[in-house]
Amino acid sequence: MKMKLTTLALGALMAAGPAMADLVFPSLSYRTGPYAAGGIPFADGYADYFTLLNERDGGIGGVPTKLLECETGYNTEKGVECYESTKGQGALVYQPLSTGITYQLIPKVTADGIPMHTMGYGRTSAANGEVFSNVFNYPANYWNGASGVVNYLLEVNDGDIKGKKVALVYHNSAYGKEPIRTLEELAKKHGFDLKTLPVDHPGQEQKSQWLQIRRDRPDYVVMWGWGVMNQVAVQEAANIRFNMENFIGVWWSGAEHDVIPAGDAANGFKAVTFHNVGSDFPVFDDIQKHVVDTGKAAGNGDQIGTVLYNRGLYAAMLAAEAAKTAQELHGTKDITPAMMRDGMEALEITEAKMAALGLPNFGPEFKVSCENHGGPGLVGVNQWDAATKTWSLISDFKPTDADVVGALVAEDSAAYASENNIEAGCK
Amino acid sequence: MSDQFLFATEVFINGLMAGVLYALVALGFVLIYKASGIFNYAQGVMALFAAMTLVGIMEGQVPFSHIINAIFGTEVHHFGWHVPALLAILLTVGVMVVFAWLVQRVVMRHLVGQEPIILFMATIGLAYFLEGFSDLMWGSEIKTLDIGLPQGGSFLIEDMTAGLGSDNFYGFFIDNLDIVATGIAVLLVMALVAFSQYTKQGRAMRAVADDHQAALSVGISLNFIWVMVWSVAGFVALVAGIVWGTKSGVQFSLSLIALKALPVLMLGGFTSIPGAIVGGLIIGVGEKLFEFAIGPMVGGATENWFAYVLALLFLVFRPQGLFGDKIIERV
């Protein structure tokens, strides 16, 4: 009897958990709640890329991948629960898609020796790998985004924005407040006048903020929004007839669903980005053939090529390439989270590699190092065309202000190191 | 007139308009509370569900298509037709009536005679159920709702008032949608008052609200009245969902507009239809003027918390709200 129970228990364990050889990638997604509209396409892109690798290539280096999806609802407590419940299942890298969850997980992943990738969000100063050994935020972070916005304003004003009035409409949360310090520094450097306008969660009601913008008549409005805040802001901007050409958002404010509800009035709205948009890349043909047509897509296939689907796919591709790098680096196909961390730190993305993956000109080339977990911080600009309902890249990926961003990263990471008794340095 | 005074007037007018939108949500709470003593936590989610159903019907979306496709391996999403807005609204009202009947049959009927807190807890459960059910039925992506309501600032008002101030004053900004919403709210309140005062069912509803036992003793069906009240609340939720959904697209956040109704109810009273309107206007104007005058000094984003502070201030002097019934309990 005892023997039978032990066998049953073992069998149940084996059935419940992934096979030992699987490369496990948790997906802390949010398909429900107020931010689901952004969470779903990202999660679909992330899942579909790993499905593609399994179906087309038999996994990474011949080892199948396994996606562990856990619903966070964009709620920090639930995100931490997801982490705790999945970390023991061989999780190689976490991508929480939430700045709040990221902040909570930084000490945990560091203690547990599991890497975390927060692409375009999270704690910006994690770019300093000498302090944040297990956190990576390549290829760009919030402060690159803020600098990218200012660079664009400089570009369209022949390099002079002195005296210009810039209003920042931001989500009144840790996420929304991230760019303020950078923009303040850049305002000092370039002489523009910055005004900040917070919008409380969820952002359904923004009349006061937009009446103020109408009174102040800023030359440009910059938006750091997420969820319903984006749709309402674009609509309110249209209502007060603010010139959409002068309205520019961060990459989390520049998806299709952020602008479609406003209809034609949203035409010309811009958003910075760190990757390309659209479905005109060979990898999508493979996804159609191996994932969608075989009924294995995470969604119903209608999100392919959308901004956030592409971002999820890009995040998955970078994770897969880091896993490949780790396999090569350590000479084994069954990598551990510690090996994955090494792979991420040694990751090099070249245009030749991107083209071979079916993603030519999709994102910038970069090389990660122990000192720099944040990548090159190259930022481009997308613009919305309401007639064709498409985003298009209207500028190349350009360098951001390394002097300002670098100094802020050094300052903030040094403060973190001091608070947490971390001895900075490369091991 | 000084520009500052004109700006404050503009904020005041927009506060009134915002207050009407808050009152639209608060009305649904009042109706159910008045007739059954239940604080319906699900009212915000009902607005979401109603708006999602309206868009789904208008666009010919196949309900539960994700489940159907997952089980049968099909690829059905749309019927291929578009339903005119008016017909879709009528069909959605029908869906809300069916929903009201189901709530009565499945939930409320089994809880007759229970403590109010039990009924409140049941509506919390109902809210969570309806959240998931809406997503399953219609999907959780953002939907554009366009039933022809105008949007954008009114050129006419802007032009007419532009000359009142200096060159820095561009005329009053008033959103056309807010003007229409005010008209809708006025009509809705008039219809609700007429219904409760001059129809047999309305009088029966008031009788139930006054005294359940007495109403039962004269042959009024409690079950029918509750289904009717939940149906009317469902209709009010649909109206709120249409107005708010037109502004921001139909998405989960619509369910959170209930948070905007709470201070309105605290201020106006849970049992008064005029209280919901007046409460909405006071909250709308109060929070907007506070944000205009004090917001910049304290970093902005004051509206959410100030609405509750304002409501609490009123509660100190009138615990039952401005128009609420005074409850006297003898020990």
UniProtKB/TrEMBL annotation, chain A:
CDD domains noted in UniProt: PBP1_ABC_ligand_binding-like
Signal peptide range in chain numbering: 1-21
UniProt KW keywords: Signal
One Pfam family cited in the UniProt record for this chain: Peripla_BP_6
Ranges where the Leucine-binding protein domain occurs: 28-351
Domain of life: Bacteria
SUPFAM superfamilies assigned: Periplasmic binding protein-like I
Family designation: Belongs to the leucine-binding protein family.
Name this polypeptide is given: ABC transporter substrate-binding protein
